[in-house]
UniProtKB/TrEMBL annotation:
Gene3D superfamilies: Electron Transport, Fmn-binding Protein, Chain A. It comes from the Bacteria. One of its GO terms (molecular function) is FMN binding. Signal peptide: none annotated. This is NADH-FMN oxidoreductase RutF, flavin reductase (DIM6/NTAB) family. Keywords: Flavoprotein. Belongs to the flavoredoxin family. It comes from Selenomonas ruminantium. Its cofactor is FMN. PANTHER family: FLAVOREDOXIN, FLAVOREDOXIN-RELATED-RELATED. Residues 10-153 form the Flavin reductase like domain.
């Protein structure tokens, strides 16, 4: 027998754990944890963000970075979601190291092994929709296999909204644009 839940209890997965890096008007780095977003084109990311210090920073700088939280960075990533940059310097408090992106006016947080460098295409205060053009991607060599990011090495996490936990992205179970051809 099935059990009915309200729409607000939807267990849509995966919900990425994206760490959005920005600079404020004084050049101070900030980071926030965001779950609602996705790659929306080959060189584009779309995030759904309510008003935060981060969104104000993006409107000012027109740039941001997106790092992927991992099994090894779960504590820092969660901290970036439970504290507000309006009250504390989260980068400093977490003991993170940053350097300025070579391509956009935003910080790269060195503790995260993969980071997208993005220009703001648009942000709507009304809808909270942020669209960014991915200008470059930085990846630590330790998470690469044959020049591409290897999720088995990266060990990215997702947010499980139903249980309010973080989970690992699992093993490969099929080959895209190939396995379904058997049914064609």
């Amino acid at each position: 027998m099935s059990v009915e839940f309200t729409g607000k209890q939807a267990c849509i997965a995966p919900e990425g754990v994206f760490i959005i890096g920005t600079y404020d008007e004084n050049g101070v780095p900030n980071a926030m944890n965001a779950a609602w977003g996705a790659q929306s084109d080959f060189d584009e990311i779309t995030l759904f963000l309510a008003k935060h210090k981060t969104t104000e920073n993006i409107k000012h700088s027109k740039a941001f970075t997106v790092a992927f939280a991992t099994k090894d960075t779960v504590e820092i990533a969660d901290y970036f979601g439970v504290e507000t940059g309006n009250k504390v310097n989260k980068i400093e408090k977490a003991g993170c190291h940053v350097h300025k992106s070579s391509h956009v006016n935003a910080p790269i947080i060195e503790e995260f092994p993969v980071t997208l460098e993005c220009e703001c295409v648009s942000y709507s205060d009304e809808t909270g929709i942020l669209v960014g053009k991915i200008i470059a991607q930085q990846a630590d060599e330790a998470v690469l296999t044959d020049g591409v990011v290897d999720y088995d090495k990266l060990q990215p996490i997702i947010f499980d909204i139903a249980t309010k936990t973080y989970r690992l992205v699992g093993p490969v179970v099929g080959k895209a644009f190939h396995d379904g051809l058997k049914l064609k």
